[in-house]
Write a structure and sequence with these properties.
Helix content is 36%, strand content 24%. It is of the alpha/beta class.
Amino acid sequence: MKEKLLEMKGLKTYFYTDEGVVPAVDGVDIVIHEGETVGIVGESGCGKSVTSLTAMRLTPGKVEEGSILFQGKDLLALSEEDMRKVRGNELAMIFQEPMTSLNPVFTIGEQIGEAIEIHMQYSKKQARERAIEMLKLVGIPRPEQIVDEYPHQLSGGMRQRVMIAIAMSCNPKLLIADEPTTALDVTIQAQILDLMRELKEKHNTAIMMITHDLGVVAEMCDRVVVMYAGKVVEEADVVTLFTNPKHPYTQGLMKSIPRLDSSEQRLYSIKGSVPIPGSLRKGCTFAPRCEYALDTCREEMPELAAVETGHLCRCWLYEAKEEQAE
């Protein structure tokens, strides 16, 4: 068994607003091992991005409870100065929007070189050479010219590659990729996924892949964590999750995938929408949208428990089946 690289335990991140407290991440447990790719999936608003930003200690919310162990160190206990030594060096992130994440007034070379100078103690000249090397590695043409250009001069796909170059420049042990292929055409999307796979194989980099695209999950991930309304509702290896999803929400996500061999005229969709975190005070947060909901589901939140070896699910249906079997 590979060593644990990142371990989140009982993580709770709350936002304090004028309307009240919003528990965006509500008791999340996630483990990522060395060299492993773990997919975090779910609809918009389920807490995926806040989970990743909390791991980087960049969330605007407040961490109420829990711990984030990275190579045995609790990141929440580190000073901001010590956290800066980890962030961008051993733990790096590809942010969701490359246009807003890149600084418009600095050249591409300056933005890649910043982390290299800070963490690797390179001179400006060495950092520039490393930046050109990274641009070549991520497949950007004319790297010697691109290094002196600004973000607005590049296409969306090239900006996304620059984001990957920045994240990979110090050879991190864990790469958090927040929707790395969103808004890119399928050709560029495939190239970026190939690139991430190649970097992972070359440097044994673990990847936390945050996405709502189940096609990307099937292609890239070893294990999958399904989130809903700030909680983990199912976790399994990728083959098990696609062939035998247990939670009604995961089953709904699988049914929503368009199929070429289907004659259905309308695509399946899960009725209703994700509740505002904290708006449902009791019971399972998926119960209002679930076609299998029991009375218990509306009264009490189930625990995340093993339904099979290595397959966890948060659902009263399996508790009820166990009781009937007895």
